[in-house]
Design a protein that fits this description.
Helix content is 49%, strand content 14%. By secondary structure, it is an alpha+beta fold. It has a domain of 59 residues. It has a five-stranded antiparallel beta sheet. The chain has a three-stranded antiparallel beta sheet with strand order 3-2-9. The chain has a three-stranded mixed beta sheet with strand order 11-10-12, with no helix packed on it. Helix 3 packs across helix 5, helix 6 packs across helix 7 and helix 11 packs across helix 12. The radius of gyration is 36 Å and the shape is flat.
């Protein structure tokens, strides 16, 4: 079992692995995200903008456009963008077609969707997308809210600043360990950990200096790597969390999680690397050059508008100054005059426009903007939108697997344990795993390819059936329609269960058989009528009696549900 010192040494070692990435993080902050706070070990405070190096906003705007496009395509706030189901490879996967199971999953998704709306999820994920497309690595925490808090929402989300966390992967490349370095005031520490669990220096500060800040680090790692075999009881939760007072190297809290509470996403990842890369990594050289050009343009413009002056000397001749508005004294001129300016704005404009196009292209900004074409039809607009969304597909697949999937599963786990959902149907008893299927606009655009293929096939079958009706025998129309409903994200509650469908068809068959018998009796009665009026009257009475009994029997069967 690792002790506190071992955990802190591991934390320091992972921080050393982050050091090589910190110059890039600082460049992103300086040129793209100037309002980001802690990106490394610097002392820059949160809310302190760092804009002294940025003279052009092309990269900032292109990054914002890419982030918004990804968010609207993957997890829009206006519609449900995911479904729950049993994994296809699971032995219980057959229940995915059970309408009762589908209805329960739909109800759970609606509860989760409402809870995420009530929480801070969409504001957090919006910030995370901006970090994702610029820094290349993000971390979102999903945790259960304090039940005693007056503004309890069930679940809270937090986008972690990139300068506060380090992490490690397992042998499969999945992140399963995280260290989070954070600050708390003495008052906050007492609220979170309890006054008795804090070291003496913080307990005293809580009384006299409640706003004094202290450094803490939280280590979250697999429980099996922390607890010894003698403490198996602690392994009921898969992950262990240890909070440590950093200066005193003292443990102040110990807890656990059923799911890994952090979703770590990497925009792109090179083989052998831990941290992610982003479009900013490729575009940074052009971003810096464009910023320098814009800086020179602004300086030249200032000189052109407010050029340096040459004035007659007044007994003192100082060094020559070329800054805008400078006054230089000379023995030669007899009057004040402007210093001639020969700047070439045309050259900088040409190069600047070229760099802008390159930066926008690296962030896919030009491809994500709808072109302004006159007289565009609705179908053309839909096709362009779907094209843009499919273009984003390879880019966001990692985001789905590394970020959205863990967030949804973690949210489901918290909701299930806190009684957010109704009791599951008995078909799901013993289920130990669920899967997430994304149905956002991007996923729908990809699935529509299957819908288009099926509908085109139906059209071809209709044409072929005019010549040979037997070709329709090869089609399982019910299964095809179920596939279409799934691809179009039709709620499971809209489909009848197999039992209800079988019962309905049995009733229809019984009604058809009763109608057939009635028709046969009427036909027989008409034949008997030819034998004589008396016999005809008798047979009519008999037929009417049979019809009445048949109708009565049908009503009884319907009332019993048979």
């Amino acid at each position: 079992m690792p002790d506190i010192i071992s955990l802190l040494k591991r934390h320091d070692k992972l921080k050393q692995r982050r050091v090589q990435w910190e110059p890039f993080f600082r460049d992103v902050r300086d040129y793209i995200r100037p309002r980001k706070g802690k990106v490394d070990s610097s002392t820059l405070q949160y809310g302190q903008p760092n804009t002294n190096k940025r003279f052009d906003s092309t990269a900032t705007e292109a990054n914002r456009l890419l982030a918004l496009s990804m968010q609207n395509s993957l997890c829009p706030s206006s519609v449900v963008w995911y479904k729950l189901k049993i994994p296809d490879a699971h032995p219980m996967a057959e229940f995915n077609n059970d309408p009762e199971v589908k209805a329960w999953f739909d109800a759970a998704v609606q509860k989760m969707f409402f809870t995420m709306h009530q929480s801070n999820f969409y504001s957090v994920v919006g910030e995370a997308f901006l970090d994702y497309t610029s820094f290349g690595t993000i971390c979102i925490m999903v945790d259960e809210d304090d039940l005693t808090h007056p503004n309890f929402n069930g679940i809270i989300y937090k986008s972690m600043p990139i300068g506060e966390f380090v992490f490690a992967e397992d042998r499969r490349g999945v992140v399963d360990t995280l260290f989070w370095e954070y600050k708390l005031t003495a008052r906050q520490a007492a609220q979170q950990f309890g006054l008795k669990n804090l070291p003496e220096v913080i307990r005293e500060a809580a009384k006299d200096k409640p706003d004094e800040e202290y450094d803490f680090v939280r280590a979250v790692l697999p429980a099996e790597e922390y607890y010894s075999k003698k403490r198996r009881g602690k392994e009921s939760q898969a992950w262990t969390a240890i909070d440590i007072y950093l200066q005193g190297k003292e443990k102040v809290a110990e807890s656990g999680y059923n799911e890994f509470p952090y979703a770590i996403g990497r925009f792109a990842k090179e083989s052998g690397e831990l941290w992610g890369r982003s479009p900013a990594d490729v575009a940074m050289a052009d971003i810096k050059v464009l910023n320098k050009i814009r800086e020179l343009e602004l300086r030249a413009l200032a000189k052109a508008v407010d050029p340096p002056l040459i004035a007659p000397h007044q007994g003192i001749v100082d060094a020559f100054k070329l800054i805008p508005g400078a006054i230089n004294y000379s023995r030669e001129p007899e009057r004040i005059k402007f210093l001639p300016f020969e700047g070439r704005f045309d050259l900088t404009n040409l190069k600047g426009d070229e760099l802008k196009r390159g930066i926008r292209s690296m962030f896919m900004a030009d491809q994500l903007v709808m072109p302004e074409k006159p007289n565009m039809t609705a179908q053309e607009v839909i096709e362009l939108r779907d094209q843009f969304q499919r273009m984003l597909g390879p880019t966001v697949s990692r985001f789905e697997s590394e970020v959205l999937m863990p967030i949804v599963l973690r949210t489901f786990g918290i909701g299930y344990r806190t009684g957010l959902f109704p009791p599951p149907p008995e078909q799901l008893f013993g289920l130990d795993e669920i899967d997430v299927e994304f149905v956002g606009s991007l996923a729908k655009a990809q699935k529509l390819q299957d819908v288009t293929a099926i509908t085109q096939w139906f059209g071809m079958l209709g044409q072929a059936a005019q010549f040979n009706p037997e070709v329709l025998d090869m089609v399982d129309f019910e299964e095809a329609l179920r596939i279409l409903g799934d691809r179009l994200s039709v709620p499971g509650s809209a489909l009848k269960s197999a039992e209800d469908l079988a019962q309905l068809r049995m009733m229809k068959a019984q009604q058809m058989e009763q109608q057939k018998q009635t028709d046969e009796l009427m036909t027989a009665a008409e034949g008997v009528g030819m034998a004589g009026p008396g016999l005809k009257s008798l047979m009519e009475a008999f037929v009417y009696l049979l019809i009445a009994e048949t109708v009565k029997l049908g009503q009884e069967l319907k009332s019993k549900g048979e």
